[in-house]
Amino acid sequence: MNIRDYLSARKREVEKALDSFMLPEQGVFTDHIAAMRYSLFVGGKRIRPILCLAAAEAVTDDAATRDALLPVACAIECIHTYSLIHDDLPAMDNDDLRRGKPTNHKKYGEAAAILAGDGLLTYAFELLSRPASALPDGSRLRIIQLIARAAGPEGMVGGQFLDISNENRDYPFELLKTIHKSKTGALIACSVLSGAIGAGADAVQEEKLREYGILIGLAFQIVDDLLDATATTTQLGKTAGSDRARGKATYPAFFGIEATKEKARETVEAAKTALSSFSNRAQPLIDLADYICMRTH
């Protein structure tokens, strides 16, 4: 199975699970749930939940263990979607488009969008804490702690704070790396490590998958920086050139386009090297690394 077929199959699996786990649009909270579901199902590549499942596959071929991780994978996607809703708000990046559609606050209003994001974040932890027969309680607790840390003040939220508070300022490359590692990389890295923990990875496997996750998270953001500078709004499904317009520091701003492309390639190769001790079950992760580097949106 080539990587596009793999991604398509896993995306269908994740979206079927998301639809089954997510609250239906009914009852007194219908409008609130509709706003949550709008952003959750408006599109997206589902890279984070797919990375979670692919990491589990790299460790074990036990289907029951992998299926037990579907609530974890879906919870991660809920958290990612919440972050996008809030990123797009007028007080943050003030975007009108996301995935080629009106952003949540443009469709439902700013207050409803804030609450839709809040709802997705908290509902994610309800999903994570549900008992799963093939996922031991100790592993589930580790995963919950890992995801909370990756999403919180020293992870995604902290990275977002640093990002917006340093707009239109000159700041060192080390701070840019911290922003990228926190704002984007933390949730991607924990997606990989959550799959590893849930699949029962040993200490060596965990460490190698942690290394892969950190590197692939960095590569993802480097490519995002490139696409914002080189792609069109139609290609991206969101406003192109917004980083420069908002005075954000990016890899292209520091190094230029061609050198940034090389840094993305180097980071992806290092991520793939981290998996050299794994069997061919890790091939989807290797192919995902190449896909992340070569994507066009």
Short description:
Helix content is 72%, strand content 1%. With 297 residues, it is mainly α.
Distance between the termini: 22 Å
The third-level CATH topology is Farnesyl Diphosphate Synthase
How large, in whole angstroms, is the Cα Rg? 18 Å
Beta-strand percent range: under 5%
Helix content: over 70%
CATH H-level superfamily title: Farnesyl Diphosphate Synthase
Number of domains: 1
Spatial order of strands in the largest sheet: 1-2
Count of DSSP-assigned helices: 16
How are the elements arranged and paired?
Layout: H1 3-21, H2 30-41, H3 47-59, H4 63-68, H5 70-87, E1 97-98, E2 101-102, H6 104-108, H7 110-129, H8 137-151, H9 156-165, H10 173-198, H11 203-230, H12 233-236, H13 242-245, H14 251-255, H15 257-273, H16 283-294
Antiparallel strand pairs: 1-2
Helix pairs in contact: 1-3, 1-5, 2-7, 3-5, 3-10, 3-16, 5-7, 5-10, 8-10, 9-10, 10-11, 11-15, 11-16, 15-16
Labels describing this entry:
mainly alpha; 72% helix; Farnesyl Diphosphate Synthase; two-stranded antiparallel sheet; 1% strand; 297 residues
Q: Your description of this structure?
A:
The chain is mainly alpha-helical. It has a single domain (3-294), classed as Farnesyl Diphosphate Synthase (Orthogonal Bundle), CATH 1.10.600. The protein is 72% helix and 1% strand. It has helices at residues 3-21, 30-41, 47-59, 63-68, 70-87, 104-108, 110-129, 137-151, 156-165, 173-198, 203-230, 233-236, 242-245, 251-255, 257-273, 283-294, and strands at 97-98, 101-102. Strands 1-2 form a two-stranded antiparallel sheet. A hairpin with a 2-residue loop joins strand 1 (97-98) and strand 2. Helix 8 (137-151) runs antiparallel to helix 10. The longest helix is centred in the last third of the chain and has 28 residues, at 203-230. The chain starts with a helix and ends with a helix. The model has no long low-confidence stretch (mean pLDDT 93).
